[in-house]
Design goal:
This protein is 76% helix and 0% strand. It is built from 12 helices and no strands. Helix 3 packs parallel to helix 6, helix 5 packs across helix 6 and helix 9 (203-218) packs antiparallel against helix 12. The longest helix is centred in the N-terminal third of the chain and has 46 residues, at 11-56.
Length: 290
């Protein structure tokens, strides 16, 4: 009987077939994990749109203030208050986070201070937001004797900082060292190298970190309960209690009134869609430039 070359399984073929089976198994497992994660994400978005879609398409949601039980109204004052505090918190926390992350990645390599800072930043990153709210309450609200939008902004800024520090540090460390060496060979000082070489190279990653921070603070309720509290009326005064979507959603969702439940679902859907649109627009804009 003549043996053909195809019927002979060599050790190399066995290794190849084994690797191929493992590759198929891992690909199938990864695909199932992806489908599992997307299933819950789609379910959450679908539930928000199903329960809050009717409120989202009503003009009164964006033009009227939070109502008393049994009356028609909207979330205009809460939307404005959230925009003001999220914007202020982002503007306060982002520069601090970027500069701290820059020090860790560019100036603090091999130093004990940098290692200690990374450790403390990771602790702050995983700290419950209610702890941040209690801290700001004790050092600011209790001292001035009243809740305020500024206190809420400070609490949100403290949540922004560790996220931005971590992503800035990680993204700058991914920039190839050859770019730094080329800039140094041309006589470029370190600050100018960071500003014109490493920052542009890590721009997309740093932006992603800022967007993650904005997404996190947009729905935070616990720190605002201890700092900004709430305000049923239209107010632009950041030095007084200020309405905001997370606290309004919490209060309305815990109430026994159906009209408040509808507004709470509408507010939750609005926050989710706003963060989603912000991420898509920013990724599209910066993706083209990159």
């Amino acid at each position: 009987m003549r043996e053909t070359a195809q019927s002979v399984i060599t050790p190399a073929n066995r290794v190849y077939l084994g690797r191929k089976r493992k590759n198929v198994l891992m690909l199938a497992t990864s695909s199932l994990a992806l489908a599992f994660g997307l299933f819950w994400l789609v379910w959450i978005i679908f539930t928000l749109l199903y329960e809050g879609g009717a409120a989202l398409i009503r003009i009164s949601l964006y033009s009227q203030m939070t109502p008393p039980p049994g009356a028609d109204g909207g979330l205009a004052n809460a939307i404005l208050g959230s925009l003001m505090m999220v914007t202020a918190g982002t503007l306060l926390g982002t520069p601090v986070g970027i500069l701290a992350g820059t020090y860790l990645a560019e100036y603090g390599r091999g130093r004990r201070l940098a290692s200690a800072t990374r450790f403390l930043n990771d602790v702050l990153l995983s700290a419950p937001s209610i702890v941040i709210g209690l801290f700001v309450y004790s050092v600011y609200v209790a001292k001035v004797g009243h809740f305020s939008g500024w206190a809420g902004s400070v609490a949100l800024a403290l949540l922004v900082i560790p996220v931005v520090v971590r992503t800035t540090d990680d993204m700058l460390k991914l920039v190839p060292g050859s770019l730094r060496e080329a800039a140094a060979a041309l006589g470029c000082p370190t600050w100018k190298m960071v500003l014109f070489v490493t920052y542009p190279a890590a721009r997309t990653g740093i932006l992603t970190g800022i967007l993650l921070a904005v997404a996190r603070i947009s729905g935070e309720t616990a720190p605002l309960l201890f700092t900004a509290l709430n305000n049923q009326f239209w107010s632009l005064n950041m030095n007084a209690p200020l309405a905001n979507l997370p606290v309004v959603i919490f209060q309305f969702a815990m109430s026994p009134y159906q009209d408040w439940h509808r507004l709470a679902w509408g507010g939750a859907a609005l926050i989710t869609l706003a963060v989603l649109v912000l991420n898509i627009v920013a990724r599209a804009a910066f993706g083209r430039r990159g």
